[in-house]
Amino acid sequence: MKKGYFFIINSKSKKARKIWNAVKEVLAAEGVPYRSFFTEDKGHAQKLAETVQSIHGEQAEAIIIVGGDGTIHEVINGLHKKDIPVGFLPCGSGNDVMRGLGKRKRLDRLIKSILNTRTSVRRIDVGCLRSAGKGRFHRRFVSVAGIGFDGEVTKLTNASWYKDWLQRFGLGSLSYTISTLRLLFSYQPGDVMVKVDGRTYEFTSVWLIAAGNLPYYGGGMKICPSALPYDGKLEICIVHNLSPVQVLFLFLTVFFGRHSNKKGVTMLTGTDLSIVSQTPLTVQADGEVIGSTPVDCSVLPSMLTIKM
Q: Which SMART domains is this protein grouped with (predicted)?
């Protein structure tokens, strides 16, 4: 096989299968060499990416992900070299990676752009989460890592019946809003110690901490509005010392990125972040539950090559 495209498709997504059928027609019409792989279960996309990189790396023009942010998260955790470009055909409930990259093209245009060998590639940063505590983990992320309330929202959303149901109607992002409202008045914020680039901060009654490589998470919430994927830094948002009603009104401003200067919001910037809490807080990244605190978070500059 001469150099071609390797597609990793989320087989559990009806929308992903529909998009793949459209892509196959374009590939056949233009005579583009390719291979396709369908995920079988959670974690399989990561294994597929590892296989493509190790066995077919020299033959890969690019790896194209047909799926949502969760599939993207798995694939980038299966790639340990940055020389294989990655492209995205988004079809998830949130699609915050594409939203954050500012590449909300029509599907047909996006397909043609990715398959165009003259389309430029670009290297972007990725975030890295590590924990040596109970349930240790080491994961990379593209968009945002969230700790605390948003970790619990992610856990509830991913286990809910309404996420897939809403996604059938193109309303998948609403599932995060529903979960937020379900948890808002029962969640118990706690005290947290945060260290950013060697400087220590202590916060009481913390609702959430978000570390953003890109601005968006939760289906369009612009939680880290100034985050850029090529500046070698993470933007950090800490929400603390607010009542549930105050948090509710704050979330209304988050969708527009206008929360940064509000009461109970602290914004920081750094390359290395450590979080220790009195009680374990749920950690999510790219909309996938990873583990719990304590956790260290850092940025890996120019670690991922994308083609869009």
A: DAGKc
